[in-house]
UniProtKB/TrEMBL annotation:
GO biological process, alphabetically ordered: chromosome segregation; DNA replication; DNA topological change
Keywords: Coiled coil, DNA-binding, Isomerase, Topoisomerase
Source organism per UniProt: Caenorhabditis brenneri
PROSITE patterns: TOPO_IB_1, TOPO_IB_2
Family (UniProt): Belongs to the type IB topoisomerase family.
Protein's UniProt name: Topoisomerase family protein
Lineage of origin: Eukaryota, Metazoa, Ecdysozoa, Nematoda, Chromadorea
Keyword Coiled coil set for record: yes
Active-site residues, Swiss-Prot/TrEMBL: 114 (o-(3'-phospho-dna)-tyrosine intermediate)
Recorded GO MF terms: DNA binding; DNA topoisomerase type I (single strand cut, ATP-independent) activity
Gene of this entry: top-1
């Protein structure tokens, strides 16, 4: 909970907030020594992600050029496309950072067995992060009690 408060910037995008959540979770996992070996496919996955980022950068550049030459109603459309592509690029870069930082840490173990789910639910509620982005369907079913307990109360949950 302390790490979440320290690492989360309320002005960040949802993707950046999830990165903050994973970083806080990573601190717990390191403390509990939840290590794993780097998967065989990690380098391959990182290369794929790197290629996606390159492709997205190219798309952003093209959209920027189109925006410069657009006039009238087309300008608004081009601006929307450019903004959307910039946001997608930002998400990909955050995903790359998160994936690389997680290569030797088993976050699932600490999330499932060591973190109080009420802290996660309260954090999601406080920072407008969809719970589906943090907990899988199985986690949400397992922690239904924490979700109900935290969502039914207007007071901020502090452990």
């Amino acid at each position: 909970q302390e790490q979440l408060q320290k690492l989360t910037n309320p002005k960040d995008s949802v993707a950046a907030k999830i990165l903050s959540y994973n970083r806080a979770n990573r601190q717990v996992a390191i403390l509990c020594n939840h290590q794993r070996s780097v998967s065989k496919t990690h380098d391959q996955a990182m290369e794929k992600l790197e290629q996606k980022i390159k492709d997205k950068k190219k798309e952003v550049k093209e959209a920027e050029e189109a925006l410069k030459h657009a006039r009238g109603a087309d300008k608004e459309k081009a601006q929307k496309k450019y903004d959307r592509l910039k946001e997608q690029l930002k998400k990909l870069k955050i995903a790359r950072t998160d994936k690389d930082e997680n290569k030797q840490i088993a976050l699932g173990t600490s999330k499932l067995n060591y973190l109080d789910p009420r802290i996660t639910v309260a954090w999601c509620k406080e920072h407008d992060v969809p719970l589906e982005k943090v907990f899988t369907k199985t986690h949400r079913e397992k922690f239904r009690w924490a979700i109900d307990m935290t969502n039914s109360s207007d007071e901020k949950f502090v452990f």
